[in-house]
Design a protein that fits this description.
75% helix, mainly alpha, 0% strand
């Protein structure tokens, strides 16, 4: 697939909305873990796999020259997944 050369305004708007919704899904979990200092029922392997999967996705969307919100989406998601995974490692000692 060839990289995109022109990106319509609607793609930027929908990409921004998608980035916001996709990235904020882990914020309540990170906040809850931090407040309660426990991660019961949250699988560490899932968080780790989510973080790992964000790396090739991030590379792909940058190489394909997708719109900017879609390019930063995997990086933000990776940071939040790694944060949640670190909480699992720390709070489940």
């Amino acid at each position: 697939m060839a990289p995109q050369t022109s990106i319509p305004v609607s793609a930027n708007i929908l990409g921004t909305i998608g980035t916001i919704f996709w990235c904020i899904q882990l914020i309540p979990q990170v906040w809850y873990n931090w407040r309660k200092k426990k991660t019961d029922g949250l699988p560490g392997l899932m968080m780790f796999l989510w973080a790992i999967c964000a790396v090739p996705l991030g590379v792909y969307v940058i190489v394909q020259n997708f719109n900017l919100p879609i390019q930063i989406q995997p990086q933000i998601f990776c940071v939040l997944a790694l944060t949640s995974w670190a909480q699992i490692l720390i709070y489940n000692k």
